[in-house]
Amino acid sequence: MSEPVPADDDDVLAGAAARLERAVAAAAARMDELERRAGAADQEAHAARNSDDDRARLAQALDAARGREVELTQAAREAGEALDEAMIELTALIAGAGAGDDEVVDEKDDDHEDGAPWDADPEDEA
After folding, report:
1. CA 70, CA 38: separation in Å to the nearest integer?
2. Measured in whole angstroms, how far is the alpha carbon of residue 3 from the centre of its chain?
3. Which of 53, 18, 113 is nearest to 125 (CA)?
């Protein structure tokens, strides 16, 4: 059988058990810290993926906006050219209408043999 352990050996065994308990507690604390850090790293990685996704979406939106900007700039240029042409046509029409009014007045003046204004009543002059 086993021999009884002397008292000095009990102290040595108790000291070893205490050291073992402290080592296990320290290892558990270290594991908790590592788990906490791993969780934080996982959250950071998730946030980075979301950030990358956001960056990609923003880049696509920016590209689309630049494309629309080009289209709108072209449309604005075309609209400006159309307005310029319309103003030129209107100016020509107004100028032509003014010249046409003079011709109409001249024609009416020519209709009266006595040279009186076209709206004058010949009986009033007699």
Report:
1. 48
2. 86
3. 113
Is the pLDDT at 126 greater than 50? The verdict is no
What pLDDT is attached to residue 9?
76
Can you point out the beta strands (E) in the chain?
none
Find out whether 118 and 111 touch, Cβ atoms under 8 Å: yes
d(CA 118, CA 111): 8
| Closest to 123 measured CA to CA, from 114, 108, 105 | 114
Percent of the chain predicted with pLDDT > 70: 72
